[in-house]
Write a structure and sequence with these properties.
By secondary structure, the protein is mainly alpha-helical. It is built from 5 helices and no strands.
C-alpha cells in the first residue's frame, strides 16, 4: 500500500509541476522554463490547468501525504509533505492578491520536489509494532 501511495504522490507532484509550467502569465519563471524545454504549447491550456487541474492535484497530494503521515507516523516528513500542497492552495486562493504569493508558490513547488526526491532517496521505514506479552 505504501508504494502505491508513494507513486500517487509522485504523479501528483509531477502533475502540479506540469500544470504550473503551462501558466507563463502567472508564473513567469516556470513559463520561461517550459518554453526552454519546448513545452510552450501548454500555454493554450493555461485557464484549465491553473483553475482546475492545479488545485485538484494539490488536494490529491495533500490527502495522499496526510494519509501517509497518519500511516507512518513520521512527523517531520509528514509536516514537510503536507506543507507544500497547503502552501500551493493558499497561494492560489486566499493569498493570490499579494505580490509575494508567487514566491510562496515557487517555494511550495520546490518543497514538494525536494520531499518527492527525498522519498526516492530515503523512503520511510514501516513502523515495527512488537506484540505485547500480556
Amino acid at each position: 500500500m505504501s508504494r502505491k501511495l508513494s507513486a500517487l504522490d509522485h504523479v501528483g507532484c509531477g502533475g502540479i509541476l506540469i500544470a504550473a509550467l503551462s501558466c507563463a502569465g502567472c508564473f513567469p519563471a516556470l513559463g520561461a522554463l517550459a518554453a526552454t524545454f519546448g513545452l510552450g504549447f501548454l500555454g493554450q491550456f493555461e485557464g484549465v490547468m491553473v483553475n482546475t487541474v492545479l488545485p485538484l492535484l494539490a488536494v490529491l497530494v495533500l490527502f495522499i501525504n496526510g494519509y501517509a503521515w497518519w500511516q507512518h507516523r513520521s512527523h517531520w516528513r509528514g509536516v514537510l509533505s503536507v506543507l507544500g500542497p497547503v502552501a500551493i492552495l493558499a497561494s492560489l486562493y486566499p493569498l493570490w492578491q499579494y505580490s509575494w504569493s508567487g514566491g510562496l508558490f515557487y517555494g511550495a513547488l520546490t518543497l514538494m520536489l525536494v520531499v518527492s526526491v527525498m522519498e526516492f532517496v530515503k523512503p520511510v521505514q514501516a513502523r515495527c509494532v512488537l506484540p505485547r506479552g500480556d
